[in-house]
Amino acid sequence: MALMITDECINCDVCEPECPNNAISQGAEIYVIDPKLCTECVGHYDKPQCQQVCPVDCIPFDPDLRETQEQLMEKYHQIWSKSA
Q1: What pLDDT tens digit does each residue of the chain (84 aa) get?
Q2: According to the UniProt entry, where is the signal peptide (predicted)?
Q3: CATH class of the region 16-83
């Protein structure tokens, strides 16, 4: 499952630099997460770092984008093999 940022986002700027896959960027009104790049920090950390630093708890799992740990790890390998 990828993560998503809800309308409760206050644009505090703390989540974007924490994302190891550069999946978070400034959207039209609030930050957004690119589901093609979001691995929920699998391959990097035990827990999603954006969720850990968000002061308003506005980064839930996206129920429309369910992925297994194996799928997230495969996505991690695909992302990082391109940058190597």
Answers
A1: 799 999 999 999 999 999 999 999 999 999 999 999 999 999 999 999 999 999 999 999 999 999 999 999 999 999 999 766
A2: none
A3: alpha beta
